[in-house]
Amino acid sequence: MSLFREAFYCLKAGVVSLGYPRGKDFIEPILPPVNFRGRLKVDLSRCSACGRCADACPARLIRISSEGEETAFRMEWRRCFFCGSCMYACPEGAVSFSREFENAAGTAQELEAEGRFKPVTGSSASQEEK
Ligand code: SF4
Ligand code: SF4
Questions:
Q1: Is the model's pLDDT at 108 over the cut of 50?
Q2: Where do the domains of the chain lie, and which CATH numbers do they carry?
């Protein structure tokens, strides 16, 4: 195809891509579908530290350990492949997927998360997120 003809077809097609991060009209932010599996969220105020999510994770990226009076919940979530096993295994409904999809990072540490908390045992838990 000649360059002229190629340019003609391209111009004839008009704009076919969406603007980013907002739609083609640059007004509404683009959101993924409701059931999209984005970055995982763990609600530590509901966590009983049972460890079922860690056991269910094929990538073994969740670590739960007792540290003094607190429990530490760590995720090397950069290794997550969004299978959902942790979410299905949690009896407390504490694990869910967010719709957060802009997860590129400059360092591996930015894709790690740690929270310290007191597991739920009938009393309310305290929570601290990094
Ligand atoms: S979604 Fe799958 S890979 Fe990711 S943390 Fe949960 S169990 Fe592990
Ligand atoms: S997040 Fe759910 S499955 Fe994981 S330790 Fe807490 S209560 Fe157990």
A1: yes
A2: 32-129 (3.30.70.3270)
